[in-house]
Prior knowledge:
FAD/NAD(P)-binding domain; seven-stranded mixed beta sheet; monooxygenase; alpha/beta; FAD-dependent monooxygenase; FAD-dep_Monooxygenase_BioMet; 27% strand; monooxygenase activity; oxidoreductase
Amino acid sequence: MTKARQAEIAGAGLGGLAVGIALAQRGWRVRVHERSNELRMFGAGIWLWENGLRSLAALGVEATATRRAKRIETLVARDSDGKALMHRAFGAADRLLLPPRADLYDALIARAIELDVDIIAGSVITGGNPRGELEDQDGKVWRADLVVAADGVFSRVRESMLLTERVDYLDEGYTRLLIPRRPEDPSTEITEYWNGSRRLLYDPCTDEVNYVCLCCNVDDEAGRRVPVDKQSWLGAFPHLGGIIERIDEVGRWDRAMRVTCRAWSRGRAAVVGDAAHAQPPNLGQGANLTFQNALSLATYLDQHADVPTALQSWERHERPLTDHVQRWTDLYGRVASAWPERFASRRSQVLELATKLPWVAKQLNKAARHIPVGAT
């Protein structure tokens, strides 16, 4: 009998669990190290596009993760006058669902446990190396056929292997939270409202709650205040008082960040998720790319007996799409937020014209309509 290969993963977030599940489904023995003493998920709702849904289906968690999620039919961006600048429709083979982030996380944890993935809480990994070793804060070395850095934007494993090219702090940030749902709330349409450098994103989520995201520049002190300065946001969006008044004191403002790696792997070590490609959430693809890259990583390891060869092939084939999305989500953010107030009308004209061009629409939706390797 062939001995099962061993994987050691740093980080039990979405990326670490997704990789662990994908490998365990293929017969690997998997251990996941989580630095916190308990498994917790921060955040509100999460956009799951077709590529992410297909990946989650292949991981065996789609149905559980989306059991309460609203099925989105349209996505609309509107300027301060209420004019629709962009309209995106969704069909049966081009889906967008929006569950609470906690539902998704719980589904991944349950699936990992079902597959006998060993999750160790309170295990602080401080570094790794291409030989297939992770080291914890007590100096213990965990050896494996494969080690994975899934430990976030400030990944200590990635940094210890000198795989970081850049970690950029961007000029915008977001407060994301859930608000109680009312019967009159739209149930199938996401709307992004623009006014100057501020955006308010309304998302149907479940029968009980909606997901709201407040976006502003880093120098907008009132906009990034937590608890949310409701009067300030009402001043920007007076017609959205019914949404803003439901915001409570829960929430946090997070600055947008972008991570660029020199490489996604070295020897027997790989980098996934935010540790590999953190990006602003303007296209809602960060987690979806994480899931498809986790799934494809396990698939390439199935195709190549030699781990370093598999990792090189994985990056060569999968990274171009992720790099593409990083460029376009940055561009969307600049178009949305980096215009002086006096040019707001010109910005509206640019966005309305650009999004009607088939080529631009194709670039914006390239990942969403991609069929991930390893998914059917």
